[in-house]
Amino acid sequence: MASSSKEKVGETIYETKDDTYAFDRSPSTASHNAGESDGAVRFNAEGFPADAEQYAVWRRGIRKLDWRAVPPLTLLWWANFIDRSNIGNAKVAGLTADLKLDGNKFNIALAVFYITYIASEIPSNMMLRKLGAKFWLPFIVFCWGVITVFFGIVKNYAGLIVIRLLLGLFEGGLLPGMPLYLSQLYPRYMVQVRLAYFYAGASLSGAFGGLLASGLIHMQGLGVQNRYLAPLKPATQKGVAGWRWIFIIEGLLTIVISCFAWWCLPSSVKKFGGLKEDERELMLAVLGRDQQNNRAKAAGVSPVLTNDGEKQVNLPPVSAPNAVGPVNAHDASNAAVHQAMVFEEEQFEWREVRRGLVEPQAWFTGLAYLCICNALYSFSLFLPTILRGIYPNISLTRLQLLTVPPYIPATVLVIIIAYLADKTRMRGPFILALLPLSMIGYIMLLATNDAKVKYGATFLIALGLYPTAPCILSLPINNTSGLYKRGTVNALQLMIANLAGFVATFIYQAKWAPKYIQGHSVALGSLILAWLFIAVNVWWCWSENRAREQGRREGNWVEYQRLVDEAEWIYGPFRSSPDSRVKTDKCRPLTAFK
């Protein structure tokens, strides 16, 4: 990179041309001016390698990691969504009649799932940290795959309740675990796009689940000669009921997916065998740089600066244990690599869990996500039921197929919004823009009796709901420092959000068919509340950022430094200066240090 600054040997010069910077050379790297590479990693304003050759190597490593991590995680989330929502397909295929689920028994069976689902989220993240994501995530998926198979042979209401409780116990750990795992592999501003792949998979699973269910119900009657399956046939029919095959086949698919994920997922960047050493070193350096900046933000000492074309970037000088002042480029890049490695080795402390439990953004975004999930869960669980109310006379196969199209445009929009959110480093404005689409959809369901208009409304509902989830899930990853605090905040956010399961499972009851005015009204009101909670979170972030710009959070550094001194293993010997400032976007929310 061409320098426009006067050089001083042994002292750090920050170069600002083209929004990049470099640590200047010390006597040991004096050959750099002669055009020789000193091997150090220099970063641009976005925190990525500034050197074109290094950037190409780093991107090659990221692509390798993407191919090894993203496909199996997407399949795991696809299996999660299929196995959670297939009960809605089974309901219209005869489950309630065969198990004699009168009154609210079906809704109760849906709700009990969330008791163990919510209770397992924080403990599961602690187990993930202890045992590693490569083992833990496929393990819990394997367990619920086995349980889903047994779902297909349940004979009564009591068995249904037990199965739903066990499913919640194991499924609860996947969603909080995947963002935490990704935050160990990628810089913060590359996570939402990867999360979007999962949610795109969720959207497609809604579509594929309908297609699969429409095919599996035609297996009605198979298995009658099998002495294990013969008792499962309804009294008035020959063979095993078609809705049972939905659970049996999808459970077996889940088991296969979990085995594939265990084989494919990398343990960490450090241990990923598919990387060359130069790729590994650059990826660790970028991760370390990202984690250094994130801790400064968590301490409340890094204000948000406007991205208005200002070129100068003030960076946190990095000091070696016994050095006075900043160090050279080699030491700086080594410091970044060191930070990435100690991040992987962070030890458990209850203090970090307590800090996560009082994090304001966990509560703001958790309450917003709770309201969104009221609509999201009810939509995914009851879409076949809603469509039966719109089209009461169509065949069961056609009904299942009609559940497919609303998910297709939502899948595309999930990816587009994630790319834009990571590019602009903003989340809140996108959520505020998307939620009104779903609100309009529910208003259309309430305001008209035209079947085509109502069916079109389901497209708008899906378009507004699905792209918002990766935005909300990315906030703790972007703004929380420390692996255990981050895991706690992420799980707490989802624990709050998943309380929606107790509401969403009761807002579409049989007595309100076929218009379901009460259910649509509750979903609409929930989305209005979600919009308000996100607006409050944006305001809080703006207020906090303004306080940091004015220097009113500098006192947090004393407490932050005390934590560093008490937990040297977390941060290693390389410290960020208390007056460090980084360039980022003004709208992106930052957490206040507690």
From TrEMBL:
It is a multi-pass membrane protein. It comes from the Eukaryota. The keyword Transmembrane helix applies. Residues 69-538 form the Major facilitator superfamily (MFS) profile domain. Keywords: Membrane, Transmembrane, Transmembrane helix, Transport. It is found in: Membrane. Pfam families: MFS_1. The chain crosses the membrane at residues 135-154, 160-183, 195-222, 242-265, 362-387, 399-421, 428-447, 459-477, 489-510, 522-542. SUPFAM superfamilies: MFS general substrate transporter. GO terms for cellular component: membrane. GO terms for molecular function: transmembrane transporter activity. This is Transporter. It comes from Pseudozyma hubeiensis (strain SY62).
